[in-house]
């Protein structure tokens, strides 16, 4: 049971499905493809609809998952504001226990005006941090692909945005956000200071680097490690370890880039990137920058994976209280999160590909929610968009369309 594959039960047979041939693969890790008839396998999925548009988009994604040709048992549990209202805490113990004992977790979104003034431990967002910590998910995968149908949604020039298809692999549980010492104090001049510590151990670097190498070899075999090794000791160790590990992945072409240059290159020439791996703080910033290349927050999925146990899959958008309950939400980010759940969480690659293909076909047929609408297309609501995706889930003809 390993990161990215995270398949909590032994499958009858596992084969690694890749785009590029690779001489050395560790079959116990990452995105193994399950072989055999999908319908024979069965998984439990914890659904955490959350707040705002969360329940609307999760309902659509659940229907799509049900059509993936695999047996699922769903269990819906409260998190965020809805859990606060129901039981007074943002992450009830039962929710975490259920999530931990399932094969994968699908989250909608949390948060809303109603709870904005709550104390920190009673904020919906605290529930989100708690479930990430509780599941031990240390690798955050955020794809950013500019779909040809939506190229005009990008703020970049068409010729720059067209064909962008990259993945940011961000370390999620270490670095300066968690490093100690941290706090407030005074300096020698008796001036108030705030301080934090950027710290990474070899094991923390190695495990995120391995995830990234595996992701890269499943994509187009290019990995760019982003650091600040010209200034920071933690980055110097990062670069050293990533370079050492590269010898285990001869099929992956490794490059290094300083973070300031990476921020610039993402805008100047984003097509040069395939897979990016970086630490927590650089990944926080670069993954947001990369996602905005696509210009459509309602289209972007994410996956968070641990060393063992279920992964957490969620759209990158929030609960969108401004449109909640109005059937205006774009459910496609959550549907694509389901594709990541299948691919990275369960190793069910062909089922994932069918769902990705269905999303593309729905867009090809011209259906658009308000956030991605343009003249000449058909404006639909969240439910109708879901119905159109369901119509396009063709169980017989998987076709590779995205490299999520
Ligand atoms: N992972 C999460 O659950 C998560 C992430 C970010 C924000 N939040 C929370 O969500 C609440 C709202 O935050 P925000 O407004 O900054 O961000 P948001 O992502 O909820 O909304 C930003 C804008 O994008 C639009 N939007 C978002 N998702 C959409 C979709 N699927 N379809 C169509 N339009 C969509 C919204 O209508 C809004 O105009 C806050 O309480 C925040 O804490 C939760």
From TrEMBL:
Catalytic activity: (2R,3S)-3-isopropylmalate + NAD(+) = 4-methyl-2-oxopentanoate + CO2 + NADH
NCBIfam families: leuB
Quaternary organization: Homodimer.
PANTHER family: 3-ISOPROPYLMALATE DEHYDROGENASE
EC code(s) of this entry: 1.1.1.85
Molecular-function GO term, any one: 3-isopropylmalate dehydrogenase activity
InterPro entries according to UniProt: IsoCit/isopropylmalate_DH_CS, IsoPropMal-DH-like_dom, Isopropylmalate_DH
Listed name of the protein: 3-isopropylmalate dehydrogenase
CC cofactor: Mn(2+); Mg(2+)
Lineage: Eukaryota, Viridiplantae, Streptophyta, Embryophyta, Tracheophyta
GO BP term, pick one: L-leucine biosynthetic process
Keywords noted in UniProt: Amino-acid biosynthesis, Branched-chain amino acid biosynthesis, Leucine biosynthesis, Magnesium, Manganese, Metal-binding, NAD, Oxidoreductase
Cofactor note: Binds 1 Mg(2+) or Mn(2+) ion per subunit.
Species this protein is from: Carex littledalei
Pathway(s) this gene product operates in, as recorded in its UniProt entry: Amino-acid biosynthesis; L-leucine biosynthesis; L-leucine from 3-methyl-2-oxobutanoate: step 3/4
Its job: Catalyzes the oxidation of 3-carboxy-2-hydroxy-4-methylpentanoate (3-isopropylmalate) to 3-carboxy-4-methyl-2-oxopentanoate. The product decarboxylates to 4-methyl-2 oxopentanoate.
Membership in a protein family: Belongs to the isocitrate and isopropylmalate dehydrogenases family.
Domain Isopropylmalate dehydrogenase-like intervals: 44-389
Region (Disordered): 1-36
Top-level division of the source organism's lineage: Eukaryota
One Pfam family hit: Iso_dh
